[in-house]
Every structure is written in C-alpha cells, then in structure tokens.
Amino acid sequence: MKFSIERAGSAQVDALCAIERAAVQLFRGHSAWAAYAAMSIPPELLQRAISRGLVWAALDGAGVPVGFVWLDTDVGSGGIGIAEIDVLPEYGRRGIGAALLEHACNWARAAGYRRVDLGTLADVPWNAPFYARHGFAVVDKNDPTFALASQRDRENGFPEHLRVFMSRPLPPLAHGEWMVWPAPAKLNLFLRITGRRPDGYHELQTVFRLLEWGDEIRVRVRDDGAIRRTREVPGVPEATDLVVRAACLLQAHAGVAAGAEIEVDKRIPMGGGLGGGSSDAATVLVALNLLWKLDLDEDLLAELGRQLGADVPVFVRGRSAWAEGIGEQLTPMSLPRCHYVVLDPHEPVPTAALFQAAELTRNAPRATISSFASGETTENAFAPVVRARHPRVAAAQDWLARFGEARLSGSGGCVFLEAKSFDRVVAIAAQCPVAFTAQVAAGVEVSPLQDALVRHRGMN
User: Fold this and answer.
1) Which of these is catalytic: 72, 186, 241, 280?
2) Where are the alpha helices (DSSP H) in 179-330?
3) How many CB atoms sit inside 10 A of residue 306's CB?
4) Would you tell me which of 187, 204, 255, 305 could form a disulfide with 209, CB atoms 3.0–4.6 Å apart?
5) Contact call for residues 54 and 85 (beta carbons, < 8 A)
6) What is the pLDDT of residue 73?
7) Taking a C-beta distance cutoff of 8 angstroms, is the pair 31, 159 a contact?
8) SS3 of 1, please?
C-alpha cells in the first residue's frame, strides 16, 4: 500500500479521533481494556497540538487519514514524548506505524530534542516489543521525568503494574544535516499612528503578542558559501526573499565563508498582518548565528533585523512587547494567558498602499501602557481603511464580531478574537464559514524560537 505522511490539519481532528477509537478496540479482552474504554482523546487538546505542528497523519492514496502520531512537549529535560500513535486496525502490519514513529523521531532530532519518551504496555506485541525494535529501551518508571504521565495513569484508572516507560536517545545532528526551527506569528493587540518622521516613516505605538503557532524553517550549512532557498515562493524572487536577504546580511556582516540552504514551510498567510516574513527572517538570523558559530549577541542580531524590517527585532528578542518608534523600540511585556481565533479572509492587504492612504489617521494622541492594560486602548489605525478597501476582510471581521471584540492585526488582512479558554476559541473556529480559514493559537510569554535556541545549543 502506498501512503504519505503529512502534517495534520485542523479539519482532520474528527478523523484522527475516530482512528484512535478504532485502534482502542484492539485491547478488548486485555486487562487494561476498562481503562482504555473509559478514555478518549479530548478533541480540543488534539486541536491545540495540531496548531503547534506536533501531529502528523498517514494518508492513503486518496488523501484519507489511516494513522497518526502526536508529540507532547510537556516531557521536559530535553525530551519530547509520544502522546499517541494509532493506525486503523485494517491497515495494520503494513509499516504505517513504523513510518509514523520514525518520522516523529527524525523531526524531534532535527528540532533539537535529545530523546523521545513514551508510556506503553509491556505485554502487547504492538506496544513495548514494537518500540524496542525501533531503538526504545525500558527505563525506571519512578524517574521524575515520568511523574506527570504516572499521575495521568492513576487519574484515568490505568493499571499501574501493566505500564512501562521507554525512551530512545537521539544523537546530535552532524555537520550539514537539516535543523528545524519555529517562526511564530504575532498579533498587534492595538496599533496607533502618532506622527510622521522627516524621512517618511510613521511613528507608531503597538503591542506585539507572540503566538505558539507559525511557520517552520529548515536550515542546513553549505560549505561553498552559497545562500539558497529550496522552495519557490509565488511572486517572491529568491533575491528579494526576506529569508535569503537575512542570511546574506548576516554572512556579509560576519564575513563568513559558510553558506546555507533554507526551506520554509509556510503556515502564516502572506499579507495577513501576522508578521510571517519578518518572523522567518528573524529565525534565519538566530539559527545561522548558531550554525555558523558566530556568537553574536541578541542586540546585534536585533539591529541586523531592523535593517530588514521594523517587525524583525521583536521576533529576534522573542518576547511580547510594547513597541514605539517604527516598531523597533521594544519594552518587554508580561501579558495574561490568552487564546485566539485568527481568521484569514484570503485577501492579502498591501501595507504600502495603506500608509499612503489619505484617510489614514496619522496624528492620534499617544497611548500609555496603563491605558492598554485597562482595556481602553484596543483600536487599530488601519482598520477603517482596510474595511473600506477590502470587503472580504470587513466580512470576516463582522462574522467574528458575533462572538466578541474582533480586531485587525497589523495592516491586515487577518482578524482575531481573544478568549480566556482554548475550548472557547476551538468552538468558535469550528463554526468558521467556508469562505475563510480559522486558526487557533495561544499567546506565549517566551517565543518558541527562544525555546528552540536553548534546545539546539544543548545539542551542539
């Protein structure tokens, strides 16, 4: 049977849950059956894992999911866990489970993790013996690393004497191998234009909120000094691509002979006001600073980023922030834990045209951090202009406003809504009209890029 493995999407949640329920039936008659029968995957948790890029599906020739693997980052201590791996029973013994497992382990290694952990049953052939054939060894279940998993077992009534924990070490990456890095999206929780500078740039105030969802960048060193991207981007020549420009700028600044290949897995909509290009550029600067062993400090990387675009420094620094100037003067902010529905109306909005709009308000009074914190300051100066010129964006905002305060991010065209619970944003996203695409994501204190940097440093 031919099958492919692809990163799972939000629309596949129900199909993946159905696969898990079907796979559980294989445990009928086993002494752990009662515990398995009483448990099922919470769809909202699977949805969040999918939004973070931690779930892959095995697809048959018609593109229908027949299996999946779900990774869990809550393991700690440099490891990542297998939260779930299931294959439809009728597709068993065809190598699908093995391929999913190896795919997950290979990704984890490229992402800087040092080991993969899991909990399983010792006496079931497709559990512990299967994992043992793929490099996993039984470890001490009393190790503090597995305390959370053991607690979950007890809460779910799982027979403790049947459980074993296993771990597979992941060797460090060799020179020239691909590394995986995140490039998170951002939201502008408000945006106010307070003036115009003599050089033509606009003075603004905003709050950048970093998300745990975004693009994924793959980078590897070339020894010939060339900077290359491996995927074409429609309408973006290689020489003007921000990731290529970032690599060339860093190379020229440091005077290094090394080069790089860069591959971008785009999830952030282009022209959506979510900072995708800027985030990609920041990730390339941070990644190549490590790969090329330059040891440049964060301030210098942020300054190089500023030369590429005003939004790049906030992604380099990796903290949500109050921003002024042209967006490069940053004051880190600690923001409440919140979740977001981000709606893509599929209508890119060109920023340059908005800045030139005669009707754009350019002399708003200056806001304060306290006025933002109180909820008084939430407007976006671009919103009236975007709504007047881009009807699909206006329609998306109007639909989302049925559930709360819907706001434009940056210069658009994506709009978003904030909620305190992940269940709430999942429920809203599930009702999204077919004309738009809904993404759910949590705001983060520390950027996923900074977390990845710590991991990759530990592997080198």
Assistant:
1) 186
2) 242-254, 276-291, 298-308, 312-317
3) 17
4) 187
5) no
6) 93
7) yes
8) coil
Give the confidence band of 460 by pLDDT, cuts at 50, 70, 90: low
Closest CA to 147 of 117, 126, 169, 122: 117
Question: How does the average pLDDT of the chain come out, rounded?
Answer: 94
Query: Which residues, in sequence order, are bridge partners of residue 19?
Result: none
Per the structure block, which two tokens stand in for 19? Answer: 């696969």
* Active site annotation includes 186: yes
Q: Indicate if 311 belongs to the active site.
A: yes
**Phi, psi at 327, each rounded to 5°:** 115, 0
pLDDT tens sequence across 241-265: 999 999 999 999 999 999 999 999 9
Query: What's this model's pTM, rounded to 2 decimal places?
Result: 0.94
For residue 206, the cross-strand partners are 191, 323
Task: Tally Cβ neighbours within 10 Å of residue 60.
Answer: 16
Q: Which residue has the tokens 């013994």?
A: 93
List, in sequence order, every beta strand (DSSP E) within 305-433: 321-324, 329-332, 339-344, 406-408, 415-419
In degrees, rounded to 5, the angle at the alpha carbon of residue 204 between the alpha carbons of residues 203 and 208 is 145
3-state secondary structure 11-41: HHHHHHHHHHHHHHHHHCCCCCHHHHHHCCC
| Alpha-carbon gap, residue 104 to 124, rounded angstroms | 22
- Give CA–CA dist 94/68, Å, rounded: 14
Would strands 406-408 and 79-87 be described as parallel, antiparallel, or unpaired?
A: unpaired
* H helix or E strand, kind and range, residue 5: strand 4-7
Q: How far is residue 193's CA from residue 131's CA, in Å, rounded to a whole number?
A: 57
Which entry of 215, 241, 311, 344 is annotated as an active-site residue? 311
Distance, in Å, from the CA atom of 206 to the CA atom of 188, rounded to the nearest integer, reads 6
Quick check: 442 pLDDT over 80? yes
Question: Which tens digit of pLDDT belongs to each residue from 59-90?
Answer: 999 999 999 999 999 876 789 999 999 999 99
pLDDT digits (tens, 9 = 90+) for 329-376: 999 999 999 999 999 999 989 988 888 898 998 989 999 999 999 999
Distances (CA, A) of 233 to 266, 270, 338, 352: 10, 10, 32, 20
Burial bucket for residue 134 (CB in 10 Å: 0-12, 13-18, 19+): middle
Q: Which residues pair with 195 in a beta bridge?
A: 203
Please, are residues 55 and 69 in contact by the beta-carbon 8 Å criterion? yes
Q: Is the pLDDT of residue 386 over 90?
A: yes
- Would you list the DSSP string of 150-195? HHHHHHTT--GGGEEEEEEE-PPPPTT--EEEEEEEEEEEEEEEEE
